[in-house]
Amino acid sequence: MGARQPRASNTHTSHTSLALLSSRQPNHHLSTASPVGSIFDLSMPARQASHVYSKAKGVELLHTVRQTKWAVTKAREWLSLHGMNVTFEDFTDEQLDQMLLGFYTSGLKKDGSSFSATALLAFRTALNRYLHKRGRSVNIATSHKFKQSNAVLSRLMSTSVKVNKTISMADIKLMYTSGTLSNSTPESLLYKVWFELQMNFGSKLDWSKVLAEHFFFSHDSLGKLVVTWNTCGLGNCDQMTVIEADDGRYCPVNSLHLYMKHRNQSGKAMLQVPASKDLQIKGVWYLPEDIRDYKEKSFMKKISSLAKLSRIYTNACVLNCSEEYYQAMLSLNHVNPETSATSRIQ
Hints:
Radius of gyration: 24 Å
Strand content: 5-15%
Organism: Elysia marginata
Oligomer: single chain
Protein name: MORC family CW-type zinc finger 3b
C-alpha cells in the first residue's frame, strides 16, 4: 500500500477554531465437503431464518452504538486536548464545522498516527447520528454550513486512494496467498467469487441482475466440474459463459460451488451479506440480505487493505487485469495454459 498522503495544514483555520470553540454555546447438483465447519442447511424453516436474521440485526445495532460512543469520546478528547469546551452538543453549526475541520487535520489515534480517511468518514457519520438522537436537526454531510470541514474530508478521501489502471501480477498472487481471496471464511469466499466472476465474464457487471438461479453445475466427459453461467442480457452479452475447473488449489469453480451451498436461499441476489461470527459457529454463512451497491463498489479497496497490497486499488482496476490474473494463476497453480480453460459458447 502506498504511503499515506500528508494532511493539509491550515494555520488560519486552527486559530479560528480555537476562537470559536472557547466560548460556551448552547446448490443441489453436487456435494462438496466444506473446508470449515458444517454446511448451512439451505432448507432452514422460515421461522428459524427470521430469528437468525433478527439476531444479526441486533449485532449490527450493537456495532452502531459502539461506533457512536467511540466518535463522541474522540470528539471530547480532542476538544479537551486543545483546551476547549467539550460539550459540543451546544455548539452552533459554525462551531461544529470548525471542530470537525480541526479533528480531520490534527486528530490522532492512541499510537500517535493519523486517522484514515475511512475512519474520519465513520466519525462524521456517527456524530451526525448522535446529534440527531439528541434532537438536533442537522445533516453534516450535505449542509452548506459544514462546507469547510467537508471540503477537507473530501480532499483526504481523494488523496488516500491511489488509482491504478491495472492490478499487478504480484498483488494478485498476494490476494490469494494472504487468504483474502479463499474458501476459508464467508467474507473471503464472497470476495473470491466476486473477483473471479468478473475475471471470467470480462466486462462490468450489474450485480443487481446476477442471480443464483443463473448458474448450473455439471461434469464434462472427463469428470471435470463445469459451471454454465447464463450471462445473456448482462451488459452486451448474448451468450452463455462456461467456466471449467482447473484442478488448482485456487479453482474458481470449486469456490463458486461452495458459495452456492452456503448462500442463503431466502434471497435471490448473488452477493449476500456475510453473517456475524456467532452465527457462523451455528453454520450460517450469509444473511438473506443483498450487498448494497455502495458496499460492492468499495470491495477492491477493502481487499487491498486486507491483503496489504502495494497500493489501494479500485473496482475499475479489476476489468483491466485479465492478463495479470491469467499469469498469476499459472504461477500459483503450475498448470499448463492449454488446460486452464474459460470459454464462451453460443
